[in-house]
Automatic annotation (TrEMBL):
Biased composition (Polar residues): 45-55
Alphabetized InterPro entries for the sequence: Put_GTT3 (IPR038872)
Organism the protein comes from: Aaosphaeria arxii CBS 175.79
Protein name listed in UniProt: Rho termination factor N-terminal domain-containing protein
Stretches for region Disordered: 45-73
Keywords, comma-separated and alphabetical: Membrane, Transmembrane, Transmembrane helix
Keyword Protein biosynthesis: no
Amino acid sequence: MSASWLQRKRKGELLDLAREANVPDAEGLLKDDLVEALQNHLGANESTYGKQPSFSEFYRRGSPVKRERSSPTDALVATKPARRRTIVKAADSEEPTPEKALVTRTPRTVSRVPSRISQVDIPASPAQLAEVADQSFQAAKTKASELWDKTRIEEFVELARENASSVVFIQLAILTIEGIGLEWNTLKSIWAFDIPAVPALSLNTHNVYLPDLQLLLTSDFWAPATLWSLTSWVLPLLVSYFFNLTLRSNTRHKSSTRQYTIDPLTFNIVRAVLAYSAYHIPTTNPGVVGNPGPVAGSTPGWGPFAEGTVRTVRENVPGEYAGLQIASFIGVLLSIYDAALKK
């Protein structure tokens, strides 16, 4: 019989048949209810599912609808479902107690749990857990790499490193430090305003000082700035442009990587000589003045610049006179090292 064919199926197979036959609300039915629903649905739609291979066995064994239609008397009897006949017979017997009903329903309820658990994708072993964790880590690593590439930080770092690894950049950095230090010390700070106290935050009154920009209109600012510019980069640039030793050393191999428009070695040598001639403090022989130890002589001006201007530059440049000579010495060493690497 077709009902026995459905009864021999497992619930998972019945669910597959119910999905294929589009039986509504099949997931929540028990096996007996599912068999009954499939039997009624397939019997009512024989013209739709009769030719499908999945249900050929059901119709070959004979659908209940065909048997019901063969006998009018059987059709009258079939109007009463078999499950209801069982309930009517059970009414004559002893009424089941709540304890018995609970016992009879418990196995069916428990039998539904494994089918639900099988639908949840949970790793069943430590190896699978480790594999899932590794896949999650790789996915997060890939996403982080994509975000990092979009920032283009590595490109900026490489560009800054490439430009900073040169004699020209180091020389510009030294000149920038000297110029900023000189202007910072030359422009005196004056009181601008006060920040009021905030008792709730335990903050006291704070005085704010800003550079006196009025000095930009006087010679007290421009005279030291002009003297430092002439001795630190204007005259050295002019001399090193005409006395460029890299041009002579590059006559056989015309390579732009070995040639500078301004010779860095000549630039730093001229810079050191000019710093010595302008900012060096001469000393007097102690035998002349009659006092032990060297005695500082007078500090005259340098060319058209007065003694006060020379003193301002010497005392306000970072490292003072020694700082100027150390910067020139570093430039000479870097120039020689760079020339040796390019040979």
